[in-house]
Amino acid sequence: MAVEGSRLMTIYRRFKPHLLMVLAQLGYTFLYLITEASFAHGMNPHVYITYRHIVAGFVVLPFAYFIERKTRPKLTMLLFLEIFVLSLLGVSLTLNMYFASLNYTSPTFLASVVNTIASLTFVLAVVLRLEEVNIWKLRGLAKVLGTLISLAGVMTMTLYKGSILRNIGHPLIHINRSSAAQEEWLKGSILTISSCITWSIWYIMQAYTLKRYPAQLSLTTWMNFVGAAQSAAFTVIVAHKPAEWAVGFNIDLWSILYAGIVVSGLIIYIQLWCTEEKGPVFVTMFNPLSTILVAVLTYFALGENLYMGSIIGAVIVILGLYLLLWGKEADQKLQVIRKCRPDIIYESDGDSPGGGKGTLNMKEEP
Fold it and tell me: In angstroms, rounded to a whole number, what is the distance separating the alpha carbons of residues 279 and 208?
């Protein structure tokens, strides 16, 4: 029994990041549905983002204070400015564009376009020389082709709607939305893609910040409070009527509490932990899971229109994404070999998704 228990614990520790990211995507799936219902009810997206991060900040604060009291690094002015920019990219600017686009597109479209974050992160990493690409190796070519294919999928979803799939039965939940807003598809697409670009920068930047401030709970707290202040400053300008800030005991309140506690609190902490353990690309590779779940739930539960262009584009995006991730994984395996055995070099003569073999050649000792 002891041996079996030890084996299960070993498996759990190995796949703990994978399990946590699956749970995070399940949390994001429900977020798409509850926020759409709240926005359809009349909730202002910018007010929602401000309240959401205020709630998240107060929820995470006591955990950050007591758990990381002895391990939390000193917060310098330079580090605070870094967190300020990090909050702008990951909270206020990005989410205000992202959720505003929900008024003009659909949850399925948003969940699909988010899959490009991994590709965009890869492109930025190459530009910043954080990622090496050797197009003469199959793994390098896979990363380049995967990026291009993924972006082609986004363009397909943005520019091509196609025919509408016939709804099966009656929707389980009815959400009344403005048809006029849904017609501004291009405007929503631009907002969504812009938010994905800033999100990609955020993923890269947080990996650096965690090296200087390795306290995930404290960093989550700071980002929520600073992001809430930034969002509030913007929201006061665009939503200055007191009635727009009022929240009743209805779907608006529940969406704020859910988003604040579960998403901006728990899930952001999970992503920071997984980023430190596995890197930013690992975190983004699970986005297609929420795409599938959102598409299924909105189609069957809400009776939302599902366009052929969205399906085709989503399939293209996912194929490109996993081609990119295969190339990335091959590079990481090579780095592990070089780190563990500095006395050898690895020459790949069979890089292929099917698992081709390579050769190990001894380096000459000086």
Answer: 10
Instruction: Look at residue 74 and tell me if it is in a domain.
Output: yes
Task: Supply the DSSP string of 16-51, one letter for each residue.
Answer: HHHHHHHHHHHHHHHHHHHHHHHHHHT--HHHHHHH
Confidence (pTM) = 0.74
Based on the structure, what is the number of domains in the chain? 1
Residue 7 lies in a domain: no
**Positions of E strands within the chain:** 344-348, 358-362
d(CA 232, CA 292): 33
Range of the domain at 85: 17-333
285, part of any domain: yes
Distance CA 264, CA 315 (A): 28
Q: Which residue has the tokens 């600073």?
A: 226
pLDDT tens digit at each of 366 positions of the chain: 666 777 888 888 878 888 898 899 899 888 878 887 888 888 898 999 999 999 999 999 999 999 998 889 999 999 999 999 999 998 899 988 987 887 787 766 776 777 777 778 777 877 877 666 777 788 788 878 887 887 787 777 767 777 877 666 555 555 555 544 445 777 888 888 899 899 889 988 888 898 899 999 999 999 999 999 999 999 998 888 888 899 988 999 999 999 999 998 999 899 888 888 877 777 877 776 777 777 777 777 666 667 787 778 878 877 887 787 787 677 666 666 666 766 555 444 444 444 444 443 433 333
Domain presence at residue 64: yes
Structural contact between residues 143 and 64, judged by C-beta atoms closer than 8 angstroms: no
